[in-house]
């Protein structure tokens, strides 16, 4: 169980960057501040990620109500809600973040972006553990909806792992409830 959770945590770090980037990348077109929900469909080249996710979900289903509540609380601190496929993540975008025209990046990551109308293309590199690199694009369909696709490379057991991710985001509410805004360091290069 611990190994599966560590694997989920390892992929959650680059996912967190991608989700925040997805929300912030479209800010040039007046993204709505507040609570956003992103659904993700991921596919790994090896199939190992899908196996680990299925095993973690099966293990969570066997937890006592108290254990499940603790796990959900831990994941909820990061705005995550694990369910079936696709997975769901919620993030809070402040009015200040929604007004920005550049995206912030977490420590250890660099990115470049190109804006064209409602579409933003992005390349990124994160030096975390495991390191990851990737590229993709997001298109804001309206101030309350976006979709996007990414390909990124990370590592699993010391071997490269290529993943494909499709996302769709929707605005839920002006009130973020218990989900806190992610404080981010200053943005990197934007074209």
Q: Unreliable segments (pLDDT under 50, ≥5 consecutive)?
A: 1-20, 22-28, 185-191
- In total, the number of domains comes to 1
Number of strands: 8
Shape call: globular
The class by helix and strand makeup works out as alpha+beta
Share of helical residues: 25-40%
Keyword list:
191 residues, alpha+beta, eight-stranded antiparallel beta sheet
Walk me through this protein's architecture.
It is a single chain. The protein has one domain. The N terminus and C terminus are likely disordered. A hairpin with a 2-residue loop joins strand 7 and strand 8. It contains four helices and eight strands; from the N terminus they run H-E-H-H-E-E-H-E-E-E-E-E. It is 29% helix and 39% strand. The N and C termini lie far apart (43 Å). The radius of gyration is 16 Å and the shape is globular. The protein has an eight-stranded antiparallel β-sheet. With 191 residues, the protein is an alpha+beta fold.
Element layout with pairings:
Blueprint: H1 2-25, E1 34-44, H2 48-61, H3 65-76, E2 80-81, E3 87-93, H4 95-99, E4 109-116, E5 119-126, E6 132-142, E7 145-156, E8 159-173
Antiparallel strand pairs: 1-3, 1-8, 2-3, 4-5, 5-6, 6-7, 7-8
Helix pairs in contact: 1-2
In short:
By secondary structure, this protein is of the alpha+beta class.
């Amino acid at each position: 169980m611990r190994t599966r959770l560590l694997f989920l945590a390892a992929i959650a770090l680059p996912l967190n960057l991608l989700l925040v980037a997805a929300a912030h990348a479209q800010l040039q077109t007046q993204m709505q501040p507040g609570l956003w929900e992103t659904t993700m469909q991921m596919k790994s080249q090896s199939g190992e990620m899908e196996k680990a996710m299925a095993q973690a979900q099966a293990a969570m289903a066997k937890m006592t109500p108290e254990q499940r509540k603790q796990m959900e609380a831990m994941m909820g601190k990061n705005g995550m809600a694990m369910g079936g496929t696709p997975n769901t993540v919620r993030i809070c975008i402040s009015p200040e973040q929604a007004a920005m025209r550049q995206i912030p990046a977490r420590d250890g990551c660099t990115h470049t972006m190109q804006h064209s109308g409602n579409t933003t293309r992005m390349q990124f590199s994160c030096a975390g553990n495991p390191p990851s690199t990737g590229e993709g694009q997001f298109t804001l369909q309206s101030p309350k909806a976006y979709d996007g696709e990414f390909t990124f490379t990370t590592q699993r057991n010391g071997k490269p792992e290529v993943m494909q991710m499709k996302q769709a985001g929707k605005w839920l509410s002006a009130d973020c409830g218990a989900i806190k805004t992610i404080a981010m360091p200053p943005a990197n290069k934007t074209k």
